[in-house]
Write the structure tokens for this entry.
Amino acid sequence: MQINKFTIATIVGLVLAVVVAWLYLGSFGAPQKADGDITYEQFTIAEDAGTGDVVGRLSSEGFIKSPRAFRLALWWNGTATIKPGGYMIAKTLDAWTLADIFSKGPALIWVSLPEGYRKEQMANVLARKLGWTDEQEIDWVVKHTAPTPDEIEGVYFGDTYLMPKDDTPAEVALRLRARFNEKFAPLAKEAVAQNIRWPTLLKIASLVQREAGGKDDMPIIAGIMWNRLLAKNPMKLDIDATLQYARDTRDHYAGSSYDPDGGWWGAAKAEDKKIDSPFNTYTNKGLPPHPIANPSLDAINAVLFPAKTDCLFYLHSPDKQIHCAKTYEEHKKNIDTYLR
């Protein structure tokens, strides 16, 4: 039987089509066959992970068949860098679908909130990362973070979070308080054993947090604060950080309205000692009405386990070293030695 050129071309074309399809599926196809509903799982990318690391993980964990093909799919989608965060993906998705998911950005994003921030500073970070409106940012500050007098400040834990990017301000406030409750639970037992009410503990810890030059200073500063509070004739705390808090609160709030713009924790000045505020520990004895910031576990631990000292005064020299004194006369000498 004679085979004409058209028949040969058809056969060759079919073979090539099969080969191309086989190569395509072997490179761009889904690693697993879909069987009913797609089962998605969370794939988390660390903040410092590079795109090469991500592609390597996708390959080793069975989400893609070919790293080279997946990179081509990313390029086709106009994506050069995969953003860190959390993605919902499945092993039954082909490379094109997977690349499209990564090109749209993560469903969960990393949000880092430094220890020692007051909640207004946290609101500024959250608004930028989550795309909140000015109204949402203000609501977080004045409404969602003030459910009770003991939860106005101090219970919004500074940490790194992986948050759904569509979390509402109310949900974020609950998330931060839940993290605080989780971290604080072991320390709460010690506070009860020492007969220290947790609101009191957080007030002192917030002062320690803002006053310390580092975590090594914290037990010393906590010990001095306890000495002042428990003295036979209790002394005013004279904490500069409370002046900063009182001044910044005055400058950012007018009545019940809140202005989110401006800086925080600028150096205290002599005139700040005259501010009429219950947070001013130069004019009021005892602790402020609530914490002035959200303290770290180190600061809370320092209040529970302070350094034993006879000191009643302290200062930091320009190199951030702490120097304490038993008497005001000694303190004045430290001022002359280290600050003048």
User: Anything to note?
Assistant: The two ends are 109 Å apart (CA to CA). Residues 17-23 have pLDDT under 50 and may be disordered.
